[in-house]
Design a protein that fits this description.
This protein is mainly α. It is about 75% helix and about 0% strand. The protein has one domain. Helix 4 packs across helix 5. About 30% of the residues are buried.
Length: about 150
Amino acid sequence: MNPHKRSRSVVEVLEAIKASLLPLPDLLVESLSLRHHIALEMMRLGMGSSEHLHTLMKVVALAGVLADDGYGQLSQEDRLAAQDAAQAALLHGQELGKWFLAADGFDIIAKMVSLHDEQLRIAPFAAVFTAGKQIDQSIPPQTGAYLTW
């Protein structure tokens, strides 16, 4: 291998490692946050969908995993309350076709969305990516499946 190409490869690897240790870019954080808050508001208004609930379920799960990894504080009580709220919304949506969060469910999910906003600002890309992969394995996309996280 050409020594110049090898040094370029090393530089590229080092740049990738550095990028994985930095927080997500602000534009990406703002985009993700907007998507999460739109899903939350649609569910609050009773105009939600299974996709909105799926988005919020992923946010709650990611917030839990990232809190377990040291990015933010999350009590077991809040974790269980968020699971219950999501489960209630899922069952109601599947049975009646109306996707919404009850008032108490909205409050705890909103708290989780706010926590996750902060986590996205402080956690390194690698931590968010790893947590996302872990969650994707436990919540199948758009199936309506709900698993305890």
